[in-house]
Amino acid sequence: MKVTNLDERIHVLDNASNVMTVIKDIATSGVQEEAFYVLDIGDIVRKHQIWKQKLPRVDPYYAVKCNDTLIVLEVLAALGIGFDCASKTEINKVLGIGVDSSRIVFANPAKLASHIRHAAGMGVDTMTVDNESELHKIKKLHPSAKVVLRIRCDAELAQCQLGMKFGCDPTHEAPNLLHLSRMLGLDVAGISFHVGSGCQDPPVFHRAIRHARMLFDMASDLGFKPYLLDLGGGYPGNKGSSIDKMADIINKALDEYFPSDDVHIIAEPGRFYVASAFTLATSIHSKRAVRGDENSPNAITHNMYYINDGVYGSFNCLLYDHQHVTPIPLKNGCGKMTPSSIWGPTCDGLDQVVENILLHDMELGDWIIFENMGAYTLPVASKFNGFPVPKVHVVTDEGVWLLLKDALPLTEDHFVIGNTPANLRLGLDIGGSDIDGWTDPTIQLAPTEILADSSSSTTSFIYDYVEVDPLN
């Protein structure tokens, strides 16, 4: 077995294994020090089944910006999903796995000129617009484009509001854009909207669909033949969340305003498909005990834990996506719980993952797990201060393997059949010839006894932490 930097293949687990057993196997191997993800592609497949069941008239076009991990795109392409791309790089990534250009919507209302030229050259014709200058730009650079007017209809409560940046007023601005499109000889193919990412206001979809119907009728009166309705994003994807209320409102509104099948209805889900599929494992590399109670000067009042991933890495979602994360210690604790905070590895004081939480006492080398880490994490992660972006290990069960192993762009070569604990523990792939430059293949990476039985091995950390007095 060689150490390679090829993309991790999909490990088909037996019935006794799951995401948590894989995490424990890697974390307790004695050789794992970096943070890592475990991606369950079966979770993505189950989300797709839910989508098709709850929203049978709506074709999903996955928002690539949410998580552009290659295996995610390949799995979604194998399921027949379309793609919402925001740049020529995203377009290239999707086209590069064999997706036809007709399954791509260039859903960025403010596009760089070079990106419009590239879309035209690649046959990506459908693109969103919300302003006059964009129409003139498209007329000049891609006159055969299929224009989709994006209107603004904001949810009252959403994780990320988008209306402040994108979307034209449906009552005043949109009619003017329709008239300008007619003057320029552009083809208005339909209407789109985005109520806000992580929407918690389901009724907003009814208002948006009603506005779209009015604009469809206006476009038809101007001589256009609109056929596309894009419901945008906003669908939650964390464990325990549901799209049932949204789906009920959307389905009823579609039956009311778009009852016939002559309109192609799509949406742009992102976090719905990937949020719960990724679980992040981090380890404690440093610990600081704070004494701050003047009545008990020797008592520890707060523990500060420093982990090997932070807001410049996977937890950028705290800053940019307004997420809330819940730490789950891998080992069950005992005794009293102490007010604690969790910090990232960089030298920046902003790098705080959890501000205040009650935790059992933990030591160096202990692992902390974070679920629901698939949305707006990896695409934005950086290597600030020299800390690496966590590796992704990909797993699934036999049922999903049988479903996807012959569904292009996936093939049997994407899968490793059967559990491979040594392989997973070391974060390696099987086979390949692209050897990491830092690796000396003559060096034994771990004693065989560690790989043989991790359950009886002791922690590889031999240091302790230092208790300090409060800072002035």
UniProtKB/TrEMBL annotation:
It comes from the Eukaryota. GO terms for molecular function: ornithine decarboxylase activity. It holds the Pfam family Orn_DAP_Arg_deC. Its EC number is 4.1.1.17. It catalyses: L-ornithine + H(+) = putrescine + CO2. Residues 37-374 form the Orn/DAP/Arg decarboxylase 2 C-terminal domain. GO terms for biological process: putrescine biosynthetic process from arginine, via ornithine. InterPro entries: Ala_racemase/Decarboxylase_C, De-COase2_C, De-COase2_CS, De-COase2_N, De-COase2_pyr-phos_BS, Orn/DAP/Arg_de-COase, Orn_de-COase, PLP-binding_barrel. The modification N6-(pyridoxal phosphate)lysine is found at residue 65. The active site is at residue 347. The keyword Lyase applies. Pathway: Amine and polyamine biosynthesis; putrescine biosynthesis via L-ornithine pathway; putrescine from L-ornithine: step 1/1. Catalyzes the first and rate-limiting step of polyamine biosynthesis that converts ornithine into putrescine, which is the precursor for the polyamines, spermidine and spermine. Polyamines are essential for cell proliferation and are implicated in cellular processes, ranging from DNA replication to apoptosis. Homodimer. Only the dimer is catalytically active, as the active sites are constructed of residues from both monomers. Belongs to the Orn/Lys/Arg decarboxylase class-II family. This is ornithine decarboxylase. It comes from Cephus cinctus. The lineage of its organism: Eukaryota, Metazoa, Ecdysozoa, Arthropoda, Hexapoda. The gene is LOC107263653.
